[in-house]
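Contributing new records

If you add data, match the layout below exactly. Sequence lines come first and carry their own label; structure lines follow with theirs. Keep one chain per record. Anything else will be rejected by the validation script.
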Amino acid sequence: MPGDETAALPAIWRLPFELAWEAFRAGSRPIGAALVNADGEVVASGRNRSQETVAPPGQLAGAAIAHAEINVLAQLPSQRRYEDHLLFTTLEPCLLCSGALLHAHVGTVVYAAPDPLWHGIERVPSVGGAIAARWAHREGPVQGPLAVFGAMLMHLWTLCHARERGEQARSGGLLALARQCLDTPGFAEAASVETAYQLALSRIADAEL
């Protein structure tokens, strides 16, 4: 896994988090993903577009299943297999996206932040058979503030868009951290995720999580 996460976004994570931040600024859930081949080249990338009406050709928008991972995998030709590829995603894949990874024959998924909503999903391969044989190897979460930042982005979205849905109850310290970041001058308006990440770092260091 990439190393120092205390100063800047590691190179391998820059594109997924750029896309996550783009999604947040567009009003969608802030999750981004990129598929990388064995040579380290980006094969496809995508982001969540669930709250938008427009998407690039072949990708989804305005639907509950317009997830970042789905929008990456939808770009892949079905005639190929991707066992030697890695999907980097800012948040742990849900059951839908994990199933899509299986169908796309992607070998490994690396996620920055855990998603408590899908706690226990790693036990799915215990059913055996084709699911176990084709289930993507999971790596994550990463260590340090990058994982906190990835998880906190979802709570930023909750604060801005889900006040009446009861989605804040399970947020704990991450919700407080999101509030502090929103109160930081220049954070919510940051044009780049690098700027937002730098502004969040001091808040993350002081957070009680």
